[in-house]
Amino acid sequence: MKNALRFGALCAVLVLPVTAPAQENLPTISIEADRLGGALTVPTTAQAERELRQIPGSVTVIPDTQFNLQRSTTVKDVLDYVPGVFAQPKWGEDTRLSIRGSGLSRNFHLRGVQLFMDGIPINTADGYGDFQEIDPSAYRFIEVYKGANALRFGANALGGAINFVTPSGRDAQHFSGGVDLGSFGFQRYQASSAGLLGPADYFITGAFQQQDGFRDHSWGHSMRAAANFGYQFSPDAETRFYFNANDIVQRIPGSVTRTSALTSPRTAAATNVANDWQRNIQSVRIANKTTLRFDDTTVELGIFGVNRHLEHPIFQWLDYRYQDYGAFVRVTDERMIGGYKNRLIAGVNIHNGLLKNRQYANGPGAGKGALLSAANDRSENYSAYAENSFYFLPDVALVTSAQHLFAIRDRENVFNLVSGRAEHNLFSPKAGVLWNVDAGWQIFGNFSASAEAPSFGEGTAVIPFTQIRPQRATTFELGTRGRRPDFTWDAVVYRAEIKNELLCYFSAFGNCNVTNADRTMHQGVELGFAAVILKSMFTTGADPDRLWLNIAYTFSDFRFRNDAAFGNNELPGAPRHFIRAELLYKNPNGFFFGPNMELVPTTYFVDSANTVSTAAYGIWGLRAGYERENFSLYLDARNLSNKAYIASTSINNVANSASTFFEPSNGRAIYGGVRVKY
Predict the structure, then answer these.
(1) pTM, to two decimals
(2) Under 8 Å CB-to-CB from 49, ≥6 apart: which residues?
(3) Looking at the domain assignment, is residue 241 inside a domain?
(4) Which CATH number covers residue 461?
(5) Which site among 72, 595, 611, 629 is 20 to 30 Å from 283 CA-CA?
(6) Is pLDDT at 15 greater than 90 in this prediction?
């Protein structure tokens, strides 16, 4: 298995929380400006930044220029400098992701964060998410909406939502190709093509990737393809078809003991090797989005369908076939009301699906054995939402919103399981204030509610999924973001009071069986800061060289609240302090280089009883490269001290020294890539 994909374009380690319009104090969307040549269905990075500036909460746009000139294959690679996001690698492209403590119970897959690709759900209809189908080389930018700030998609998860956006043929390069190579047999090859044919445009990208992996039994390879085809009927009417396909094969090295992770990090779990644990995915996603504009009102309509096959030999051989489908309508109306600017967004979402759940025996050398259980799991989700921003002062808006979700989880027993049905009616209001202090500085605050329906993975044999209650949270958030020519900032404090948080109380094979806690609390501080430390060192003039410092700091305090079993213990699974920093010299001729670091200065617990913890660590690396208009290259060196540390963990209610909850980090690694485009 050879070949792989890559990319390498434009440097920018700078975290730009959200870019402000340069010429106006009140952020508005100029319809006339947007009509000049752009796609209606796919915003540019600047349009996305301008849109997110109208949200009174923590949101971030990550342009591709921030992650293309490095090895970017995982969610961690592209989200590393977003405060409040804790993303740590497990194996292959799999990642343990938590935003503000969301989904801490998830030792496998993802919950608590809703993933979208071009505004189309990646998560399954019952709430699960996976990262293997995400290809960072395909995206123009990535949007991160924390908590209830994700109302734009009707999302209502504690962690919010992440939207990965591909370019259109109206703003992409005609051709782009790249190669990445590096440690542990890593190879990636990528190519894309785009064009504009009168009223039609297209963008197509494909990538192949493979790696032997740092750990034993961690090799894998993948092929990913994405395309969109748009047609503009008029300056105010456009439709776009999306296509996405993936074929992914990945071995799973598994979690090990703390001692093994720190002293023998390459060693895989013996059971994983003996039973050849894997996670293999084949998927196809097809969608359409149509945008219509009528003076002050924009209407977006869309439909989508997903067919996904998961072959997952672990303690049993899981053979899951997902068939998800849905539709959405969103209306945005901007007008003056009584002399005051007003902006209304309202929409309806449908996301339904059928999971044909089959589990077979799996043993050493046996492969797929006898059928052990089978069910047809149906999920239905119907949501309606509205958000209104009323500028009662020219620069200050009162933002009120609400969402209602009706969710159904219905299991039909086929063999050796129990049928059941659960229905959930969940209402989530929000109110906030947004103050545009000037063209590059905002202050915001909000109170919001979130509510998450349980998935089929929640519950145990003793407590079935039908008895698991929805997780509900009320969150307060206060922050500021802004940009000046030589520095940017993004600072937020928040506190979430949670009822019925979905947490792990019993575990087998390192995987949680999730039930409800009583009351818990998540609070924290999120700080993003980037500044020019020095400039005009070797190059003067209007565009001098610069030395940029970029820091992302997250403080997290997650606890039980007077729990009968665990009192006020810390919730396991996330560090109290997480720091990412980079010092980057950038020359206007395109050359850049500099060191970076990741620091977790204190241990964190892996069990609710607070008896077993990880190890503190600090690692450093270097990044260098060169970028011109049609050519770029980079060198990305990681963990240069070759430190053995614990990258991520599984959790449980109790643990001991023999608990196999720990995922070792990769050792010293060097990657390089080159890209051409025209």
Answers:
(1) 0.91
(2) 16, 18, 19, 61
(3) yes
(4) 2.40.170.20
(5) 72
(6) no
